[in-house]
Amino acid sequence: MRRSPREKLNIKKAARFAVTVNALQVAAMLAVLLYAIFRDSAEGRTLEIAVIAAAFAIVSWGAVLDIREALNAGKIEDQARMLEEAYGQLEALNGTLRKQRHDFMNHLQVVFSLLELNEPDEAMKYVENVYGDIKKTGGVLKTAIPAVNALIAAKRQDCEEKGIALDIRIGAPWRDMPVPGWEMCRVLGNLIDNARDALSDDVNNADKRVTLTLDETPGAYSFRVENNGPAIPPEVQQSIFQMGFTTKSDGHGSGLAIVREILREYGGEITVASDETITAFIGNVPKRFEEKE
Fold this sequence. Notes:
By secondary structure, this protein is an alpha+beta fold. The chain has helices at 5-8, 11-38, 45-116, 120-138, 146-161, 181-200, 234-237, 255-265, and strands spanning 165-170, 209-216, 220-227, 269-274, 279-286.
């Protein structure tokens, strides 16, 4: 099995190591400087302090640069992971489209044979089934963001395998969306997964349904991910976007915190509304956002 670049090189691990080493280096130089200042002997003290102070300044400057680059490397690693996820979703969609193209001639042959056998009703039923499958894949190719289209197609299939219907309502193409496609996939992917998980254990619900709505206004892009599962208690709603908070036994409590962090980076926001009939996560991103210096 081919290993991904992230498996070969853990950038976050390297970044943490760089931060630790540089912090220890600065601490060591500071200790030496303090020793030179406060030791009893005054012989050559002025020159010694000057040399050590200069070395301390150089080391500290280098350490600050290293730590800054290490932190930037961690951010790049997050972006690389999101790109990898988006690439996987595109691969899945591409595989589905290749399979449909490959099967197209077979479908035509079956329809032709049914017509030859004077079975027009059976031919019509067959065409309707094939059309339904094609519509499920082609029906989500409505946004201007290929990665988002791929994500929706992949999540729809994932939900259907678990007996959950994923309804897609795209009211706008999301052209010129300021959030990069792979980051928007992280936002929508987390929300759809959470909605799916909320329904997975709802054994009393015969009509498990997740609804994704994408739209926009003159001033903002908007989205809504809702499910008809159990309500989220009010006390949980107050903490649900905090890093580390989770109600899942195997969760890490980072998904929704990351969603809010990504949206806020582009001036957006997300809220939650939940009652006994519906739970909805509603988010938006302004069309014009000037990042603060």
